[in-house]
Structures are given as C-alpha cells and as structure tokens.
C-alpha cells in the first residue's frame, strides 16, 4: 500500500487530494497546525480514514520525525497562506509558510529518503503582470505580491533540488481552481453565495472589484487529479494546470446569476475600492504539456459555476453554517 503525506489537508485542495488518494487505496497522513481543529473541518467520511498529525512549518525536526515514522511514497504540499490584502500585513510570515517551508520539506526528503516523490502547489500568480498569453512552463515570472514572491521562491527551490540532488520533485503551477469547498472570502465563492442570497431575498446586491479582470478557472478536483498524475510520470517536471481559457469576473457573474434566472447587471456593483493595482493580469494557462500525460478536464466552466451556485443555494436553504465544512450538505463531497 502506498502512503502519502498531505500538508494543509483541511483546505479545499487537501480534501480533494485525500479523497482521490483514498479511492486509489493509499494510506493518507495529513499534517495540520491543530489536528483537533482540523478534524472539526474535515468531513467524517474522510477524517475516519486518515491519520492527522501536528506540524509547525517552522519545525524541521518535527517534520523529519513525521516522515521517518510514516515512510511516505509521496508528499503533496498545500500548506500555505492565501493571497489577499491581508498578506501585506505580515509578508515575513507569508515567506516562511509559502516559501521556506517548501525548502524544509525538500531538505527532509533529501536527508531521509530521496526516493520520496514530492509535488508542490505553486501558483499562476508567480507570472504577475505580463502581456503574453497563454502562459507556459517556460514563461518568465514577474511576481507582484508577497504571496507570489514566496510561491516563486518555493517553486525555484523545487527546481534546484530536482537538478542538484536528483529528487523526484515537481511543481504544479496552479491557475485558479474552484469548487463549493472554496472559502467564502474568495471572489468566486463570494459571487455564487451572493447570487443565492439575492435569489432568496436575503440581499439585493453584491459589491466587487474590477469586473474585467480575467482568470483561467477550472474545477479543483481536476487540478488535484493532474497533480497526482504528475507524480506517476517517469521523469519529474513542472506543469501548468489550467483550463486553457481565460474569462472575466463579469462572465463569471453572468453565468452564476443566469443559473438562478437573474440578471447580474441588476445586482452586481463594481467599486474601485476593491481594485488592486498589484493583481496579475491576462492569466491564461497552456495545457499542452499537461495533456501530453493524459489529463483532461472532467467538467466545463459553466458546469463548475452551476455546481457552486446550486451548492450555495442548497446551503442557504438548509440554514447550515457556511464556516464549518463538516456540516455541509452531502453535495459538497461530489466526485465528478
């Protein structure tokens, strides 16, 4: 039986990865800052089948002990602080968790068992402000935020350990990947949740930033499938994980509100207060390299948005606490 360690297991990506690996017969070990708190956030169907362990990302000896005790074949790193305005309040912490922790994992693998395969969740935000699209695995990076800079450091360390030490280490350059498990603070979930609230008469409008900002969105479950496939190849390499099509926030709003027979123009307000000058622009990933290992998306952009809207509508109708994923309706655990 293969064993995998998933860092940051209680987040959207960690949960989808845990589900996928359990389906494939893996023994799954998840690291978290607080196992007791994480257990409250993880659906019971998953928590009962995995092992949760504490890891302080600044504690190298603790990480080594976890690896030595559990003897993983693969490690997937999702431990990270997310992007957003709050990242500017403590960029040093962003650097520690999103950047330096990656080096600690790579170093531990090299010291304990160089045969362990490692996948890093990198980010399309590393591309920053660029004019050329689509972005590929060789497109130059131009990070515009502490989050992106820290992610780029981790990404480059993956390349260094792969080339210098011969470790099977790969970076997944993840473009925006969404699902009903996405946190309510993310713009996509903010849109779908607001649309559902408006449909139910709980509010009349939602205020967003730049509606013309474009992103390349795909289903989080498809992104996770791609990361697993990356570690099954013969040669370690980095891959862009995207849908291959960029769409504006305006289009996301249109599809979400139309699902509920609403016109987004009647309810969505764009305010410069929420514009961010450091936002990456023109993000669109090339999937050619990823397709070469057999990957394809399981659902379309429209289907993804509809799933998220349907989920939020059901969530509000059942009056369940949106801040506790453990209490989410069964549809939150879809496998598509």
From TrEMBL:
Keyword Lyase attached: yes
Keywords: Lyase
Cofactor(s) this protein requires: NADP(+)
UniProt organism field: Polynucleobacter duraquae
Task of the protein: Catalyzes the conversion of GDP-D-mannose to GDP-4-dehydro-6-deoxy-D-mannose.
Gene Ontology biological process terms, A to Z: 'de novo' GDP-L-fucose biosynthetic process
Similarity section: Belongs to the NAD(P)-dependent epimerase/dehydratase family. GDP-mannose 4,6-dehydratase subfamily.
Domain NAD(P)-binding residue range list: 5-308
Signal peptide span: none
Catalytic reactions of this protein: GDP-alpha-D-mannose = GDP-4-dehydro-alpha-D-rhamnose + H2O
Lineage top rank: taxon: Bacteria
Name of the protein in question: GDP-mannose 4,6-dehydratase
Record GO terms (molecular function): GDP-mannose 4,6-dehydratase activity
EC number(s) reported in the record: 4.2.1.47
């Amino acid at each position: 039986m293969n064993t995998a360690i998933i860092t940051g297991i209680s987040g959207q990506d960690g949960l989808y990865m845990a589900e996928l690996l359990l389906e494939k017969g893996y023994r799954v070990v998840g690291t978290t800052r607080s196992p007791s708190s994480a257990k409250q956030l993880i659906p019971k169907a998953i928590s009962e089948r995995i092992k949760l362990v504490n890891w302080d990302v600044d504690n190298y000896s603790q990480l080594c002990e976890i690896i030595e005790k559990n003897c993983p074949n693969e490690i997937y790193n999702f431990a990270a602080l997310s992007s957003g305005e709050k990242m500017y309040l403590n960029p040093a912490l962003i650097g520690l968790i999103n950047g330096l922790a990656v080096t600690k994992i790579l170093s531990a693998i090299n010291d304990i068992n160089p045969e362990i395969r490692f996948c890093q969740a990198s980010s399309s935000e590393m591309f920053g402000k660029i004019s050329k699209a689509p972005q590929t695995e060789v497109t130059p990076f131009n990070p515009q935020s502490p989050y992106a800079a820290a992610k780029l450091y981790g990404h480059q360390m993956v390349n260094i350990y792969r080339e210098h030490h011969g470790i099977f280490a790969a970076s997944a350059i993840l473009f925006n990947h969404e699902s009903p498990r996405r946190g309510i603070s993310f713009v996509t979930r903010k849109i779908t949740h607001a649309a559902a609230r408006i449909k139910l008469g709980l509010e009349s409008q939602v205020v967003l930033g730049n509606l013309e900002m474009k992103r390349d969105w795909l289903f989080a479950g498809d992104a996770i499938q791609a990361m697993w496939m990356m570690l099954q190849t013969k040669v370690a390499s980095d891959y862009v994980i995207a849908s291959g099509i960029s769409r504006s926030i305006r289009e996301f709003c249109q599809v979400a509100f139309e699902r509920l027979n609403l016109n987004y123009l009647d309810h969505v307000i764009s305010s410069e207060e929420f514009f961010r000058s450091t936002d990456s622009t023109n993000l669109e990933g090339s999937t050619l390299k990823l397709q070469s290992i057999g990957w394809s998306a399981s659902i379309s952009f429209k289907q993804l948005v509809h799933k998220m809207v349907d989920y939020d509508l059901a969530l509000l109708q059942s009056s369940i606490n949106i801040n506790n994923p453990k209490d989410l309706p069964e549809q939150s655990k879809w496998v598509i």
